């Protein structure tokens, strides 16, 4: 109890804005670095497809997050294979994932524990066919059916 | 000193300056995707410095250069091309 009182006396002598900023940031950094990091690590390592997004695949809360979910749907990824985390529900996760991935925006897509990219990159890969190959290779999307002859003579 | 008296550099100008001083820019275009609110941007960057880098690497490089600005924005998307890719795209 007396330690806290001493601490307060010291803190009060510093300009208040500076104190707030430095202690807040340090606390935030420490939290992000330990528990949250382990949680995220575990999530991406134990699930082949993880999407950190705003909202859910059923109800995306952002155009970029919606786009990513739509692309995965179009590629034939069954809903149950998508493990998604709603970053709007968890402010700590929202900032932790940005630090973990060293990537400033959400959504973020992880395949087999590796960061693939955000909406731009996923869209680009979808257009180039790269995403399809990757999803099929990792068993996340069904392989393309054998091309049937359009008409029989 | 009254803070209102100093001209505040906009986030947009800051981004442009940083990109031009860190990369060899052939073409640079910012589009405000927030309805002119200055809170979301989409940028197209054509630079020879992107040669040999995969898309993710290029985006990470830009994110690094613009980390302060992006942190202030609501949304940010980018298109990164080499001069050759840019020429090809213009032809289509």
Automatic annotation (TrEMBL), chain A:
Residues 50-116 form the Glutaredoxin domain. Keywords: 2Fe-2S, Iron, Iron-sulfur, Metal-binding, Redox-active center. It comes from the Eukaryota. CDD domains: GRX_PICOT_like. It holds the Pfam family Glutaredoxin. GO terms for biological process: [2Fe-2S] cluster assembly. GO terms for molecular function: 2 iron, 2 sulfur cluster binding; disulfide oxidoreductase activity; metal ion binding. GO terms for cellular component: mitochondrial matrix. This is Monothiol glutaredoxin-5, mitochondrial.
UniProtKB/TrEMBL annotation, chain B:
This is BolA protein. Belongs to the BolA/IbaG family. GO terms for cellular component: cytosol; nucleus. GO terms for molecular function: 2 iron, 2 sulfur cluster binding. InterPro entries: BOL2, BolA, BolA-like_sf. It comes from the Eukaryota. GO terms for biological process: intracellular iron ion homeostasis; protein maturation. PANTHER family: BOLA-LIKE PROTEIN 2 (PTHR12735:SF27), BOLA-LIKE PROTEIN-RELATED (PTHR12735).
């Amino acid at each position: 109890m007396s330690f806290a009182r001493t601490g307060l006396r010291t803190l009060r002598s510093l300009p208040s804005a500076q104190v707030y900023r430095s202690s807040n940031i340090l606390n935030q950094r420490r939290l992000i670095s330990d528990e949250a990091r382990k949680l995220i690590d575990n999530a991406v390592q134990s699930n082949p497809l993880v999407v950190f997004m705003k909202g859910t695949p059923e109800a995306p809360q952002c155009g970029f997050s919606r786009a990513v979910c739509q692309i995965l749907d179009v590629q034939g990824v069954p809903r149950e294979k998508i493990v998604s985390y709603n970053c709007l529900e968890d402010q700590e996760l929202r900032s932790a994932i940005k630090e973990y991935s060293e990537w400033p925006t959400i959504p973020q897509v992880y395949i087999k524990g590796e960061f693939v990219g955000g909406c731009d990159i996923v869209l680009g890969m979808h257009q180039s066919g790269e995403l399809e190959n990757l999803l099929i290779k990792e068993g996340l999307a069904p392989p393309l059916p054998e091309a049937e002859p359009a008409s029989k003579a | 000193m009254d803070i209102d008296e100093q001209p505040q550099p906009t986030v947009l100008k800051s981004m442009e300056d940083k990109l031009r001083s860190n990369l060899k820019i052939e073409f640079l275009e910012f589009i405000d995707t927030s309805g002119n609110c200055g809170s979301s941007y989409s940028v197209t960057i054509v630079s020879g410095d992107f040669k040999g880098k995969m898309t993710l690497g290029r985006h990470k490089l830009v994110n690094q250069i613009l980390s302060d600005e992006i942190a202030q924005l609501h949304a940010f998307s980018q298109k990164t091309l080499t001069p050759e890719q840019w020429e090809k795209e213009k032809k289509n």
